[in-house]
Amino acid sequence: MFEQVQEIIAEVLGTDKENIKLESNLTDDLNADSLDALDIATQIEDKLSVKIPDEEFTKFQTVKDIVDYLENNK
After folding, report:
1. C-alpha dist (Å) from residue 25 to 35, 49, 62
2. Residue 49 region, left (φ>0) first, then alpha (ψ -120 to 50), else beta?
3. For residues 52 and 9, is the Cβ–Cβ distance under 8 A?
4. At what angle do helices 63-72 and 34-48 cross, to 10 degrees?
5. How far is CA 21 from CA 40, 51, 54, in A?
6. How far apart are CA 11 and CA 69, in angstroms?
7. Label partner for 4 (CA 20 to 30 A): which of 20, 28, 42, 43?
8. Per-residue pLDDT tens for 5-59?
9. pLDDT tens, position by position, 35-49
10. What are residue 22's DSSP bridge partners?
11. Domains in the chain with CATH codes
């Protein structure tokens, strides 16, 4: 699951996958803004066939938060 999320984030942010770790903070470490976060959520929903409620996605701080949510809500 992490690899899929890592690939999507790298694509959206235009960065190397190697820069994205589980503990990476979306805003502090990866410089994602709110539009990037929305784009990441949309891509995850499309590519992984899941629905992430807006109120859940706004709680995500790290890549691990996203992975944990997806693993717990398959």
Report:
1. 16, 24, 4
2. left
3. no
4. 30
5. 15, 23, 23
6. 20
7. 28
8. 999 999 999 999 999 999 999 999 999 998 999 999 999 999 999 999 988 888 9
9. 999 999 999 999 999
10. none
11. 2-72 (1.10.1200.10)
Tokens representing 42 are 């949309």
Distance in angstroms (rounded) separating the CA atoms of residues 55 and 24: 21
Half-sphere exposure of 20 (CA within 13 A, CB side): 26
Among 65, 71, 1, 68, CA closest to 29: 65
According to DSSP, residue 19 is labeled G
CB–CB of 26/60 below 8 Å? yes
